[in-house]
């Protein structure tokens, strides 16, 4: 199954999860090249972290930014399943990357101009236990409309 198909399946699970089971999908392990780009832009070394998404992050983003009426009032585009499939390419080829702290959590913000301005916020999750992986986990995702 391709990454795109796995993301689509996780999206469906995130919207219909009556047992509240936590699902994590590791998309890509950050290599030296991408690690250098992120370090230069943010001062944060995330080389060898996994770029990951989980059903809770998808559900949060969908709840906050999936309503077409609310998003239009904000000057934004409602996110849909097909947008989530673009998360990995947005991160790997971001136009801008910023570091921020939101609600006490370290976040990297990846921005990419496509048909709108895409913003993918990834929470840094550092672990110290053996066998556990450092991850950039989806915190939220939204799209601003282009203004001409």
What does this structure look like?
A hairpin with a 3-residue loop joins strand 5 and strand 6 (about 115-125). Strands 1, 2, 3, 4, 5, 6 and 7 form a seven-stranded mixed β-sheet that branches. The chain has helices at about 5-15, 30-40, 55-65, 70-75, 80-85, 85-90, and strands at about 25-30, 50-55, 75, 95-100, 105-115, 115-125, 135-145. The termini are far apart. It has six helices and seven strands. It has one domain. The protein is globular. With about 150 residues, it is α+β, with helices and mostly antiparallel strands. It is about 35% helix and about 30% strand.
Given as residue ranges, the uncertain stretches (5+ residues, pLDDT < 50) are none
Cα-atom Rg, whole angstroms? 15 Å
Number of strands: 7
Cα distance spanning the termini: 40 Å
Beta fraction: 25-35%
SSE string, helices as H and strands as E: HEHEHHEHHEEEE
Overall structural class, as computed from helix and strand content, comes to: alpha+beta
| Mean pLDDT across every amino acid position | 93
Largest sheet: 7 strands, mixed
Number of domains: 1
Name the helicity range.
25-40%
The count of helical stretches stands at: 6
The coarse overall form would be globular
